[in-house]
Amino acid sequence: MKRSLLIVVLMGAALTLAQAQADETLFNKSGLGLTGAWGGWNTGVAVFGDQPALTKGGFGGLEFGKNLFIGWAGQKTVNRLPFASEQPSRFGFDYGGLLVGYAPGARNAIHPQFGLLIGGGEARVENVGSDAVWVIQPSLGVELNVFRWFRIGVEGGYRYFSNSNIPDYTDQDFSNFYGQLRLKFGWSWGK
Asked: Per residue of the chain (191 residues), what is the pLDDT tens digit?
């Protein structure tokens, strides 16, 4: 009985000590504690070769310290577009990965936002082949806080494709500028 009581007391002390140490983490001391959860949709235009393509996607993740967003995002082409080569073919892609965003002054009605998506996916050229690709997509934009739970953003950047081994195509054929409109839903809490 004494042994069981001692184990319970030691476990309680260990949990109290662990909680006290957890309160002193890098994120809590620096103000990067969990402050929100957001998700939404985006639609845009990307250029491949000299052809524009409509894109759509979604994202979701957590907000830290009101300004830092870490989550997941995915994108794909909506329409298949003719792609320049000796014999015109239809092109499409889809990919997803880690999304990191930073919005300085996110409490202001209008504020800048910076983002970086890194992930993998698949590029397809009809009657030629498909291949797994890596995508790095930095962005710069502006966001409007419409309501506490709804934000609209406009952003653009350059999408880098790498590791494509589709015959007669290079990574530069798939890499180009893009722009998109983003609808963001969620909630921020705390100070």
From this structure: 555 554 544 555 554 444 444 444 444 555 568 899 999 999 999 887 777 889 999 999 999 988 999 999 999 988 776 665 555 567 788 999 999 999 998 889 999 999 999 999 998 888 778 888 899 999 999 999 999 999 999 999 999 988 877 777 777 777 889 999 999 999 988 76
Nearest in space to 100 (alpha carbons), one of 76, 85, 127, 118: 118
Note the residue count of the chain: 191
Strand residues in 19-127 grouped as ranges (E): 34-48, 51-64, 68-77, 81-83, 89-102, 110-125
Q: Is 132 helix (H, G, I), strand (E, B) or coil?
A: strand
CATH says 32-188 is which class? Answer: mainly beta
- For 183, counting Cβ atoms within 10 Å of its Cβ (0-12 exposed, 13-18 middle, 19+ buried), the class is middle
Rounded Cα–Cα distance for residues 191 and 183 (Å): 24
Helix runs in the chain, H state only: 2-22, 26-29, 171-174
Cα 139 to chain centroid, rounded: 10
Domain-wise residue ranges, the chain:
1-30, 32-188
